[in-house]
Amino acid sequence: MSNLINAIRVSSQKTPVKGAVIFLHGLGDTGEGWSWFPQLINQTKIIKNSDAINYVFPNAPQIPITVNGGYVMPAWFDIYAFGDPNARQDVTGFFKSCEVLKSLIKEQIEVHGVPPEKIIIGGFSQGAAISLATASILDFKIGGVVALSGFCPVKNDVLERHEKSGVNFNTPIFQGHGKADPLIKFDYGQQTSEFYKSLGFNNYTFRGYEGVAHSADDQELVDVMKFIHDIVQ
């Protein structure tokens, strides 16, 4: 299944592959929108052995988005109201995307031989929402999770599905959120972090960024690179 998933893949320049980063874009974007990240990583030299990492930037399917009048755009799930956890939610589409991410993780393990504890999943906005939920329902250990401007629109459903064995409760999670985000409010991001902590995740960092809207600023990206380095080194 995984080789059918449309994604931009930046392969490791060295073998053996030391790690993998799978990063999901936000609403209306594509994998190409984040495909510059490996080049930035190489330039900063924050991550040692960065040329021994596989990067995967999947493309979400094109679907009609209700809140945008049914306009078709790339999305990991439908949205009925922006930033409203109490609105109707696309539960089926949400967990279908979690399965897509799960298959991409397995591709790195089974096809590329990457140790699962060296695989980092992450995303921006919708992609962050999918990454956090996927980490909670996985029945095997991964390396870490990066969630930027993230949220959890389906708390009750995650609560029902989460892996109670706690296989990833110690897995490091980094969640960053702009304090000036008008779309996914900072408070919603903070509530999301508290929700996942309440499930049992105990290696969780939530960091706010002054003056940052619905985007990622330089300091946040540096923090992400340091986080990846600590896992892959």
TrEMBL record:
Belongs to the AB hydrolase superfamily. AB hydrolase 2 family. Hydrolyzes fatty acids from S-acylated cysteine residues in proteins with a strong preference for palmitoylated G-alpha proteins over other acyl substrates. Mediates the deacylation of G-alpha proteins such as GPA1 in vivo, but has weak or no activity toward palmitoylated Ras proteins. Has weak lysophospholipase activity in vitro; however such activity may not exist in vivo. It is an enzyme of class 3 (hydrolase). One of its GO terms (biological process) is fatty acid metabolic process. It comes from Spathaspora passalidarum (strain NRRL Y-27907 / 11-Y1). Pfam families: Abhydrolase_2. Its EC number is 3.1.2.22. SUPFAM superfamilies: alpha/beta-Hydrolases. This is Acyl-protein thioesterase 1. InterPro entries: AB_hydrolase_fold, LYPA1-2/EST-like, PLipase/COase/thioEstase. One of its GO terms (cellular component) is cytoplasm.
